Amino acid sequence: MPKMKTNKAAARRFKITATGKIMRKQSGKRHINEWKSQDVKRNLRGWSALAPEFKKSVLELFPYKQYLR
């Protein structure tokens, strides 16, 4: 039986923690940043946890969990 392939687009967008939470990047920093305050832009840095209702659909893209960085 052939190997299953990991969805590479999803592998770049999500990472998994040691406790099993799926983390995603914050959205809203790509453009139209001139009018956003520094506080808003600062709070959009980094990673945030994925909502639990999306966990099942995201994990279907990862047949092997070691690809979740």
Task: Give the fraction of residues assigned to helices.
Answer: 10-25%
> From the alpha-carbon coordinates, what is the Rg to the nearest angstrom?
15 Å
> According to CATH, what is the class?
Few Secondary Structures
Uncertain segments are none
Beta-strand share of residues: 5-15%
CATH fold annotation: Factor Xa Inhibitor
The biggest beta sheet reads: 3 strands, antiparallel
Large-scale geometry: elongated
Question: What is the count of distinct domains?
Answer: 1
Q: Say how many strands there are.
A: 3
| Adjacency order of strands in the biggest sheet | 1-2-3
Oligomeric form: single chain
Separation of the first and last Cα atoms: 26 Å
Order of helices and strands: HEEHEH
Give the overall average pLDDT: 90
List the total number of helices: 3
Report the structural category.
alpha+beta
How would you characterize this protein structure?
By secondary structure, this protein is an alpha+beta fold. The chain has a single domain (1-27, 36-60), classed as Irregular (Factor Xa Inhibitor), CATH 4.10.410. It is 25% helix and 14% strand. It contains three helices and three strands. A three-stranded antiparallel sheet has the order 1-2-3. A hairpin with a 5-residue loop joins strand 1 (14-16) and strand 2 (22-25). The two termini are 26 Å apart.
